[in-house]
Design brief:
Elements (H helix, E strand, L loop, with lengths): L14 E7 L2 H4 L22 E8 L5 H15 L8 E8 L1 H4 L10 E2 L13 E5 L6 H15 L1 E4 L7 H7 L1 H17 L22 H6 L8 H6 L4
Antiparallel strand pairs: 1-2, 1-3, 2-5, 3-6, 4-5
Length: 232
């Protein structure tokens, strides 16, 4: 399948990501104070009014777009004074920014970057800081939207093999469940009956040989003798 080719206008259902670098929550670090699970600094932009974003897919996260962007995000992490590790994205549907439930609403502008790899980014977009707001207020607003109505997409690619797809398929799971039922019925534990409705011969005791000799079973009379002894 070809990689998603975005339109100039951003759709309401597009998945929009804000890059996260050196995020303790995604490293498993404990005791790190953070509001809403993500540090405020990830949303604060002091270099200008534009806050950079990535367009991750038309309605869900596109795997090929994700792979394309990871290479560029990891390269960007090395540009900091102290290189930072790219840990993933905070992701939200575009409509949560464009039609924000709390003002101000934040239109998303497509702004692809045309530079040599890996500085290029055809999926780049941005929002503008509202007039009269500083970078701290904008960061608070963005973090509230992303943490309240979005999720985190870690920087971890899991390549699905055909075996993974096979074992995860609904039909495969159904067949395995049926085989499991059959196996349970066929399996007989030592000393246990095959079925609750049937009695195993192992559970029937006839006594020892000596007991049978001392207490023999009653003799069975022939049918003709029994009839002769019966009253007419």
């Amino acid at each position: 399948m070809a990689r998603w080719n975005p339109h100039n206008s951003v759709g309401l259902n597009e998945q929009i990501g804000r890059r996260l670098f050196d995020e303790p929550m995604l490293r498993g670090a404990m005791g790190q104070p953070s509001y809403g699970g993500i540090q405020l600094t990830h949303f604060e932009e002091k270099r200008g009014d534009e806050v950079s974003l990535d367009r991750l897919g038309a309605s869900g996260i596109d795997r090929q777009v994700r792979r394309y962007l990871i290479q560029r995000a990891e390269a960007d992490g090395g540009k900091f004074g102290k290189p930072k590790r790219f840990d993933g994205w905070a992701v939200v549907a575009a409509k949560e920014l464009i039609h924000a439930r709390r003002d101000p609403k934040l239109p998303i502008y497509s702004s692809p970057v045309s530079e040599p790899e890996p500085k290029d980014n055809i999926y780049h977009a941005h929002v503008l800081r509202p007039e009269g707001w500083n970078s701290y207020q904008m960061a608070l607003h963005l973090r509230h939207i992303f943490t309240s109505h979005g999720r985190v997409e870690p920087n971890k690619i899991v390549e699905e093999t055909w075996q993974d797809i096979f074992w995860a398929h609904a039909i495969t799971k159904w067949i395995l469940s049926k085989l499991n039922v059959i196996w349970r019925f066929r399996k007989i534990e030592p000393g246990e009956p095959k079925s609750s409705n049937c009695m195993s011969m192992r559970n029937v005791s006839f006594g020892s040989k000596a007991q049978l000799q001392n207490d023999p079973l009653p003799a069975v009379q022939p049918r003709s003798a029994a009839l002769r002894g019966r009253a007419p």
